């Protein structure tokens, strides 16, 4: 049974930093596509970043150079380091996972099979 639990959200001033974590269990962590998505109130859930393996990462353009996705296979934990935060980065942040069977990781929400409950990020 796959379980994901996010943590690390909070309120921060513009220009500040936060580090989100996603603790995972119930599957072979290293083989799957893992991603961060975010959702602002009244808007759809948008892709932020993905990682597969140890160094295959992708980012949406608005966070490139500011956010870093990483993971610790031994701890089965996914991270999102967020620097130079902007008010438009505010929203509920979710981690998602699916098995791409060796293919490229998708940025589409409907590809992801499992989700955590989310952690709120507010930038003012």
Describe the structure in your own words.
The protein has no helices and eleven strands. It is an all-beta fold. The chain is globular. The mean pLDDT is 93.
> What is the overall pLDDT average?
93
What is the terminal-to-terminal distance?
37 Å
How many DSSP H or I helices? Answer: 0
Which sequence of SSEs, written as H and E, runs from N to C?
EEEEEEEEEEE
Number of strands: 11
Unreliable spans are: none
Give the overall shape: globular
Q: Helix fraction?
A: under 10%
Radius of gyration: 13 Å
Proportion in β-strands: over 45%
Largest sheet: 7 strands, mixed
Class from helix and strand fractions: mainly beta
Which key features would you list for this structure?
mainly beta, 124 residues, seven-stranded mixed β-sheet
């Amino acid at each position: 049974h796959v379980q994901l639990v996010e943590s690390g959200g909070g309120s921060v001033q513009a220009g500040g930093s936060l580090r989100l974590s996603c603790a995972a269990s119930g599957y072979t962590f290293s083989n799957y596509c893992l991603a961060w998505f975010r959702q602002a109130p009244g808007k759809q859930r948008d892709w932020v970043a993905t990682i597969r393996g140890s160094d295959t990462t992708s980012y949406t353009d608005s966070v490139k150079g500011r956010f870093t996705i990483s993971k610790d296979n031994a701890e089965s934990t996914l991270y999102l380091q967020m620097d130079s935060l902007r008010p438009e980065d505010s929203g509920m942040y979710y981690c998602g996972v699916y098995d791409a069977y060796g293919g490229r990781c998708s940025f589409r929400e409907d590809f992801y099979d499992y989700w955590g409950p989310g952690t709120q990020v507010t930038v003012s």
